[in-house]
Amino acid sequence: MFAWLKPSRRRNRTDRFDAGGGEGGFYSLQEPYGNAWDDDRDDDFPASSARSRFAEWDARLGNIDQQFEAEERRRLPFWRPAYWRGQRKRWWAVRIVAGLIALFILIVAWLALTAPLSKSLQPIASPQVTLLASDGTPIARSGAIVEEPVEVERLPDHVVEAFLAIEDRRFYDHWGVDPRGMARALFANVFGGSRQGGSTITQQLAKFTFLTSEQTLTRKGREMLIAFWLEAWLTKDEILERYLSNAYFGDNQYGLRAASLHYFYRQPEKLKPEQAAMLAGLLKAPSRLAPTKNFDLAEQRMKLVVGAMVDAGYLTEAEAARLPTPRLDVRARNTVPTGTYFADWALPIVRQQMERGYSKQTVTTTLDARLQRIASRVIARAPLGEAQVALVAMRPNGEVVAMVGGKDYGQSPFNRATQAKRQPGSTFKLFTYLAAIRAGMEPDDLIENTEITEGGYRPKNARGQYSQSITLEDAFARSSNVAALRLYYQIGGDAVIDTARDLGVTSPLPAGDPSLALGTSTMTLLELTAAYAGVAGNAFPVEPHAFPKDEQDWFEWLTSGEKSLSSRKHKNMEELLRAAINRGTGRAATLSVPNFGKTGTTQDNRDALFVGYAGDLVVGVWIGNDDNSPLKGISGGGLPARIWRDFMRAALTGADGPLPDARPDPEGPIQPLDVPELEDIPFGLDIRNGQVVISGEDGGIPLDIVLDDNGIRIDPERLERIIERRAAERERTADQQEAERQRARDLEEAARELEQQLEEANR
């Protein structure tokens, strides 16, 4: 309808006529019928009134066009460019500013709902924990020195003013972020002044409470947002209190109270101005400026703080000049070690159970200080050379009473008892033979002991010793590899793995790998010793623990899932373990009390172990090189067994003095030697259930001579079983010998016939 008007409006829609009164807009070439303005006064219509009418009409038409265009944009989807085309800059600016404000409000609201405000009340470093031995002796102290938080209203003015002067003079005036301070720091950093930081106290609290120390713009942005949020939810005094209570002051001191007590032995409420100035100066570089290490630097920094207090109007020049250099008052230092192998293992456990707070913690552990001293002395005396060593001693219920993770904690804090996973060697045969016993086999059952010549895996026996058959007890005592492998095949690898799992082994155990029977899978010494503890107490699995546990009630015991062996099977397994230590590869560990154990040596002597138990102690010993290189002349039946024996002798007899050097006594009883090449000694001494048992041989028949209140006697049951076994072996041997003799006679007869034929041929 108005299309004929559009070209002129687009050229100039505001000035339709020129300033001189001439028509500068548009007009029709033909007068329309009638008069649109006044039907009766066409001739008298003034030019100015006409221009006004045209301008009004043109504005109405422009509004109609705008409404049409707006309606067209509303019908378009918002993602179409035409939807946004034609908007004015002011329209864009208003909406961008409004969007940023809305985004900021949403972020602050999100922080208010999700960020834990209480975290700013908690210490940024874990407070100090003191570990005590079972007798109350301090054994380790670790963690930051953290004291109770301070209250600003109780602090002297000069204490608060010292921190405000050097850290944030406009703290009580800004809203968490100080643009003036940021600009001043930027100017100083860009134009070569001393490097400054523009962060406020609120920003610093946000940084070390909620964020990391990374130097990125993203972290700085998050720091500013959290600072705004803290200002919205906390008062200025609350922010300052949390900042002063958590800031690091060097020398492992966190918080103003801890630092005040450490450096000046004063509560912060009684600090002098010069002392407060020195403490305030430490915050820039606590480790470097700590007055106990660099007093001169701390003094220079203190003078800078005093000058800042003068500039801020907190001190006059005369008052500042009268301030002396403070004198340190550092009391007796902590003599308890900050770390030991046992403490490094126990501390993460206790911290998981602690509630966050500023209070110090003192926790009693299961460690026996006397046994720990014995273990340390025994290890120190052992001729280890360059090799490393680990020792774990625990009760059958899993209470760890002694732990050594290496020769020297100061040189290597790596704990080889809890962190190093090494091959257990023949000590793993415990699971193989126990699986056989659980399957119904007896110690006197025979198993083939000949060399393996078929298959992809062909282990050898030490020193190449084989026989047609061997009992389970002798195979375990002599650590026969071929017998263990055949036993693995006979009972199945799954049964061995299930037994290990029942005893608490959690390390990976590859299924279908026959080398598993000889201990090629890796595990920690702590894990292996705990498995032996399960056999010692006949209750498994055993969980090693560093802190005393409450005794289980009947319901907890019923639902604990503990397993055990029948008395007969448990006795059979202990018979094997006793044989290994009394007349087998572990003879060097023999004690004068009932003892049970097993040696272990991995391929190329890379690991040497002895694990066993006696009395109420279960002890594992490992020796090896950290780089897994072969040991020189060390096997499981050698040095590890002797270390085990020396520890047990002192531990079980109650001796706590220096261990005497072993000296041969030609007039005394014969001592078993730890020489792998020696054959079995002719007799052994053992104590079983209050009875002295002498094991020996008479004419090749093993005998057990029992000495008790009833006198001296021979164990008839064992003698009968052994005689039957020996008789069966002699019968088999006699049959073999008869077959060989018959074969020889046949050969002789054939030879005679051949000779007769030759003689007849010569005739």
UniProtKB/TrEMBL annotation:
**Which Enzyme Commission number(s) are on file for it?**
2.4.99.28
> SUPFAM superfamilies in the record, alphabetically?
beta-lactamase/transpeptidase-like, Lysozyme-like
Query: Tell me, what's a Pfam family for it?
Result: Transpeptidase
> InterPro entries, alphabetically?
Beta-lactam/transpept-like, Glyco_trans_51, Glycosyltr_51/Transpeptidase, Lysozyme-like_dom_sf, PBP_transglycosylase, PCN-bd_Tpept
Residues covered by region (Disordered): 725-748
Tell me the pathway. Cell wall biogenesis; peptidoglycan biosynthesis
User: What's its top-level EC category?
Assistant: transferase
- Which residues are in the Glycosyl transferase family domain? 144-309
Alphabetized, the UniProt keywords read: Carboxypeptidase, Glycosyltransferase, Hydrolase, Membrane, Multifunctional enzyme, Protease, Transferase, Transmembrane, Transmembrane helix
Task: Pinpoint the Penicillin-binding protein transpeptidase domain residues.
Answer: 391-615
Q: Which reaction does it catalyse?
A: [GlcNAc-(1->4)-Mur2Ac(oyl-L-Ala-gamma-D-Glu-L-Lys-D-Ala-D-Ala)](n)-di-trans,octa-cis-undecaprenyl diphosphate + beta-D-GlcNAc-(1->4)-Mur2Ac(oyl-L-Ala-gamma-D-Glu-L-Lys-D-Ala-D-Ala)-di-trans,octa-cis-undecaprenyl diphosphate = [GlcNAc-(1->4)-Mur2Ac(oyl-L-Ala-gamma-D-Glu-L-Lys-D-Ala-D-Ala)](n+1)-di-trans,octa-cis-undecaprenyl diphosphate + di-trans,octa-cis-undecaprenyl diphosphate + H(+)
- List all membrane-crossing ranges: 92-113
| Highest taxon, organism lineage | Bacteria
The text of the family note is: In the C-terminal section; belongs to the transpeptidase family. In the N-terminal section; belongs to the glycosyltransferase 51 family.
Instruction: Supply the PANTHER family for this chain.
Output: BINDING PROTEIN TRANSPEPTIDASE, PUTATIVE-RELATED, PEPTIDOGLYCAN GLYCOSYLTRANSFERASE
Question: What protein name is recorded for this chain?
Answer: peptidoglycan glycosyltransferase
Species this chain originates from:
Altererythrobacter arenosus
